[in-house]
Amino acid sequence: MARQKSVVLAGTASSESPKKRGLSTTGLLPYLFISPALAYLAVFVLVPLARGVQLSFTDTRLINPTGGKSVGVDNYTNLLADDRFLNSLFVTITYTAAVVIFSLLLGTATAVLINKPFRGRTLARAILTFPYATPNVAVALIFIWMYNQSSGVFNQSIAVLGFGQVGWLEDPRYGMAAVVVATLWKVTPFVMLVMLAALQSVPDELYEATRVDGADGVSTFRAIVLPHLMPTIRLLALLMTIWSIRRFEIIYLLTGGGPVESTNTLVINIYQQAFNQQKLGVAAAIGVLGLLLSLVVTVVFFVVDRRATRKESQ
Amino acid sequence: MPRITFDNVRKNFGKSVVIEGFSADIADGEFLVLLGPSGCGKSTMLRMIAGLTDTSEGDISFDGESVNALEPRERNIAFVFQSYALYPHMSVLDNIAFPLIMDRFKPWYHLPILNSIVRRMIRNSPEVKDRVLEVAKILELEPLLDRRPRTLSGGQRQRVAVARALVRDPEVYLLDEPLSNLDAKLRTQMRAEITGLYRKVKKTFIYVTHDQVEAMTMASRIIVMDEGVIRQIGTPEEIYHSPADTFVARFIGSPPMNLIPGAVMSDRVVLPGKQELKVQNIPSVLGGQTLVGVRPETIRIASSAKESVRATVVSVENLGAETVLGFVFCNDANSDSLLTRDNQSTFFAKLEGSHSLTEGAEIFLTIDTTNIRWFDPDSGSAFLDLS
Amino acid sequence: MNRAGRKLGQLASRLLLIAFILIASFPIYWMFNTSLATDSELFGSGQKFVPQLQRLNEVPQNLAEIEILKLLGNSAFIATGVTVLSFILAVMAAYALSRFKFHGKGISGFFLFSTQMMPEALLVVPLFALFAGFGLLNDLTGLVLANTAFTMPVAVFIMKTAIDKIPYEIEESAKVDGCSPYGQLGMIVIPLILPSLAAAAVINFFDGWNEFLFANSFITDQDLWPASVGLAQFMGQYSTPLSTVMAAALVFTLPAIAFFLLVQRQIISGLTAGAVKG
Asked: How near does any CA of chain B get to the CA of A225, in Å?
């Protein structure tokens, strides 16, 4: 309240002499515009978040969502010693790393391939974006069927080549790969689209200059394309990381966290603790730790990005 | 032996023909300028010489051997781009060294760790380093070697682009409007530097521009182009004094050559307003209507009314050392001509010194008839000297 | 690099691109193919690679049996609600962030986008508890409310980027003519950013359309299932033929793809405006 008052005073004082064109500092008006959105988020994000943090210090069960006694930091200490939790942390990191690295590689490669105009390019680009437009549930369903051990198309195809049947979703050795592949199918087109936009901002004359200087494709890529793409790559790495930490449907429907918890990421773990084990307090604690992880990642990104941007422009 | 030969080169983009039937010979060591308005195809022509664009038809040969199938690097040319095309993420030194590094690059050097080691080795090897420093010295770039292109001024960037071209000691230098992004003062300075460079390296320079001043001052020969067609090939003097058609006549010279419609008689020409101009040695092939090509500098203010034409002043630009006079012809006193100011085009005279004349004043002008160029009004081509 | 090398490189690129296109389109094609196969083919003799188009006319009936329309209707309800609510909140917030300077602007912006970082799973639990208290649990409206918190910031981002691109002079002249800021927003800015608004609407719509986690956690009444939950449930059951589930999945997918294609250009420019630097 006090803050608002001082702003109003500052606002009215300076309303006689608007400082920057286009940016008005007149008192209440901006707040009127932005407060619905902020209030909404306060109610539906801040409050649950606070409640979640509060829950994480209790032993609340699903049957009685509002009851539950405080247990201090027990949930947290137990988790950090719990193999299951540590496993889910490890799984999350593995899954995220795999998705980020391969989506960036494949997405950039596809963008490079489709950068030069050719007949049918619009159609090709459209088809390449279909996976991204497909709903997560549909992606999961079709991949479940394709991964089916006895009748799925993958196993049927490799049977022709003489290989046996692989339990893509049942065998702990393949579970993670199966989930990563399904994720990549859905997510790579997004990387491609963003990279494509970045690629198209490279001036043609630069490519010509490398031809004159005798550089081959790879050298050209290294010399002018890759440096140009670096800021975009960094941003995409952040987005992909955050999204991987959050991803639920595909993993949940494909493997439910199995087989033998080989794909049990943090969010799957949260879901299980909350709705299977019925331990809301523990689930909340995992959630808070997951949020901290995201925050750390974001901070790291900003630091790295700022440093790199400074280096690039000196 | 002609150094570069064009044999009926043609270029289409889809259905539209950008360059038609272009044939020419460029001698070794020439400073050849491709001159023409925007969109005439000169940059396309240059890129075809470089190998950056393919020809649709026809042959380009270096020293008699066709280079159509050769990539730019294989043609041993250097290209200075209009926007300089400096590698933004490399220092000036790396920009200049890049062609040399690429020369020494083998395909397997692309392996990950090997790549950085090899590149550093090549970069620091004496041949490369010494050559780069040598070139940097010539273009006075030594203090800038560690800077990024982003931090350089236009003129500095241009010099880096030239250095990068120079470093490989190519046989042919191709320059695509290199001065058009610079301000006027810098342009004059860089013009001199490029000419100086040309004299020093003594190689063939092919230079594209739309600026006729650059062409006239730098070229040993000029190819004037318009809409994909060669209008004239010649030395600056030839282009200036003996333009092959009305396009060339009006493209060169500031103000451009006057093309005065006239009727040819045996010993004189009847100008607008039925004024008569006595001309010696009228070529006998002429007859009927013609366009009389008169350079503005050959028109003077008459000392007397005899042997002169009457004109009305339309505009006066007093530039101190010279005055540009815009005028229209008056009706001859004895004729029934109905010429008015509004139904004819303005012609220009370039007078030496400072003149103050008032608009609308009537004056008398003499035209030096020894330097007249005759043009066919229908085709635009000049009647060539028959003497 | 010589001409021959270039041509070879081009050929390899072309082949690789074709491979990628096949990979991208295969699963969707397979969805279609599976929707036309019988159980005996699928689990017995082997699924044919060529779609059995003769069974195409059986599909609508199969879909009706699983009440696809009700499922899609619920999805549509959620998606529409999310879009409308997000729009209202986002438009004003985007305008404020773009045009005004005020204390707490930076924090507000950060806060708005913080939800993008947050795993929904974290909020499922407390929202579950919260909704339980207000009786919003088994309620589609509850889902709308929960989802909007996540979709609205995306809309703000897209709209703000679009508003940034419009020169302020137009609104200034309206201001001089006596137009209020609300008027400026409604009568001048909104008409000018319609393409971005459409893109934001489409993105929001499909966030609501695709959403699974909250729906699965909060809705127990089968009649209220959106298609995402319904499909997931059917997959596990043996009573529903796989072909029907696939047909339903395809019907669930196609609107998303169609609309995405329509507004593709807008979405890309909206998303990449901030992302692409240099």
From this structure: 10
